[in-house]
Amino acid sequence: MNKKKQVTKKEVKKKKITFFSAILLVIGSSIGAGIFLKNGEVLGNVGQSVVLALVSWVLSIFGVICMGVSLAEIASATTDSNLGIISWVKNFCHKYLYKISKYFMAFLYLPLNFFLMPYYVVIQFQDAFGWQTQWWVSALIAFAISAWFFIASGLSSKLGDIQNKVVTYVKFIPLAFCIIAGIVIACMGLGGEHSIAPVAPEVGSHVRLAQMFAPLGVIGSIPAIIFSYDGFYSAAGIQSEMEEPKKTPLALVVGLLIVSAINLLIAVALLFGSENGKVNHLGWFFDNAHWVIGVMEMLIAIGVLGIINGFAIYNPLYYQDLIKGGELPFSDKLKGKIATQKHNWVGLIYAGVITLVFFIIFTLIGALAYVDTIGYGTTDMVPFLGGTAKVGYDVLANGPCNSLYSFCDLMANWTSIFAFLCVVFATIGAMINRRTNKVQVRKVKGFWFCSIVSTIVIGIAVLFIVAASITDIVIVSGWAKDIGSTTVPGYENYTQNDWFKDILGASMTLIMLVIFVLVCCIPSSVEMHKEKKLHLARA
C-alpha cells in the first residue's frame, strides 16, 4: 500500500514545475516580443524624442512593477486554480465582472494569442532573410507554429517546461547583444542622429491623436509597452502543475522585476543605439555587418516562441477548470470525460476548435479586409545571407501581408489592454477587500500605494486608447479635404484610395473595440439573466 503511494508521488513529481521554472515561465512568457516590436511605435508617438520615449518606458514599467507587488497579495487568495487572471477577478469582484473576464479570456484573449504571436515569429524571420512572401504562405507557417506548441506543450507540461527553458536561454542571446551593442554604439557616437526634444508635426500633416502632442504620446505609448509584458500571468494559470503553488505570487513578482530590468536596459540601448528604436537599424551593424542583425532577428523570433509556449501550457488547463465548474457551453457533456482522460485532451480540443475558427477568420480579415496602417510596407529588412537591405513585405502581392501584420498590431494592443484591465478590476476589488476582509489573503507591505499607482497608470492607458479610437475617426475624416490637393506639403499625391485606407484603419480600431465589448458582455448578460431566473424559480 505504501509502495503504491510512493509511486504515485513520483509520477506526480515528474510533471510538477519548480519555483525556478515558474520564474523562467514568467520571463519566457513575456519577454522577447514587445520590447523589440513596439519601440518604434513609441518613438513615433512622442515625436521621435528619445527622452520622452524613455519616460514612456519608465512610467509604464513603474506601473507594471507596482501591479506585480499588488498581485503578490491578490494571487495569494488562490492556490489550487488554473484560471489565473479570472480567478483573481472571481475572488474580489462582482460576479458580472467575473463573467466578462471569463468570456474575454476564453473567446478572445487566448485564441487571439495563438493568432498573433506566430505572425510575429514570421515577421522576424522575414526581416532576417528578406523574404517576400504571399500572405497565405505566412498564414501556413504561422498556423504550423501555433499547432506544434498548442499540441506538444498543451498535452505535456513537462515538455512545455523543457521547451520554455531552451527558448528562454536562447532568447537571452539577442537580449544581451542588444543591451551591450546598443550601449557601446551609443557611447561611441555611432548610433546615428537622435532627437532629444519632440519634433512637432508639420502644419496640415496627417497625424492622429497620439502624435499631435508629445505628452499625449507618452500616455498613448503605454498600451504598446504593456504589450511587452503580456503573458506574464501564465505562471499563475498553472498552479496545479507547480510543486509549491503557494509560491506562485513570489514567482510572479520576481519574474516581473527581472523582465522590467531587462526591458529598461534594452529600451535605453535601442533608443540611443538605433535611429528608429529597432534592432534592424542598430547603428554601425546596419551599415557594416547587417548579417549580425539578421542572426539576432532569427534569435528574437525563437524568443517569441517562448511566449507561445507559455500560453500553450496554460491553455487546456484554463478551459478544463471552467468546464469542471460548468462555466462554458457543453460543460455538462464534457465534465465526465475530464475525470477519465490520461492527458488534457478535453481542454485541448475545446480550445483548439475556438482557436482554429479565430485563426482563419482574423487571418482573412487582416489580409483581405484591412490596410497597412503601421508601415510594414516601408520597413527595412536586413537579409541574413547578405545583399542589400530591402524595403517592405509582400511587394508582389500588393500588400496583403503588410495589412495582415498591421492588423496583428491592432489586435495585440486591444488584447493586452483588456487583459490588464481585468487585473485592474481585481486590484480595485482587493483594495475594497482590505476594508471588508471577506477574502483571506497574505497581506503585502506597500499594497495600497502599489495598487493605486498601477490602477492609475493602466486606467489612464485604457481611457486614452478608447478615446483615441473615437477621436481618430473624426480626425481622419477631416483629411478628405486633402484628396487631390497640390498645396499640402508631403501629400501632393494623396488620393481617394489613400484616404479610404486611412479611414478604414481608424474605423477598424473602434469596430474591434465594439466587437470585444459585445463578445464579453452579451453572453455574460445572458448567463446572469438565466441564473437570476433559476434563482427566482427555486425561491
Provide a descriptive summary of the structure in words.
The protein is mostly helical. The chain is built from 19 helices and 2 strands. It has helices at 2-14, 19-30, 34-37, 39-45, 50-74, 85-92, 95-129, 135-155, 157-187, 209-212, 214-227, 248-273, 283-288, 290-324, 331-340, 345-368, 400-436, 447-477, 496-538; strands spanning 380-381, 390-391. Strands 1-2 form a two-stranded antiparallel ribbon.
Give a short summary of the structure.
The chain is mainly α.
Largest β sheet strand count, sense and barrel closure: 2 strands, antiparallel
Summarize model confidence as the mean pLDDT.
Answer: 82
Structural class: mainly alpha
* Series of secondary-structure elements, N-terminal to C-terminal: HHHHHHHHHHHHHHHHEEHHH
Span between termini: 48 Å
> What's the helix count?
19
Q: What's the count of strands?
A: 2
Low-confidence stretches: 1-15
Molecular shape: globular
The Cα radius of gyration reads 23 Å
How big a fraction of the residues is strand? under 5%
Helical percent range?
Answer: over 70%
Spatial strand arrangement across the major sheet:
1-2
Structure keywords:
72% helix; mainly alpha; two-stranded antiparallel sheet; 539 residues
Topology:
Elements: H1 2-14, H2 19-30, H3 34-37, H4 39-45, H5 50-74, H6 85-92, H7 95-129, H8 135-155, H9 157-187, H10 209-212, H11 214-227, H12 248-273, H13 283-288, H14 290-324, H15 331-340, H16 345-368, E1 380-381, E2 390-391, H17 400-436, H18 447-477, H19 496-538
Antiparallel strand pairs: 1-2
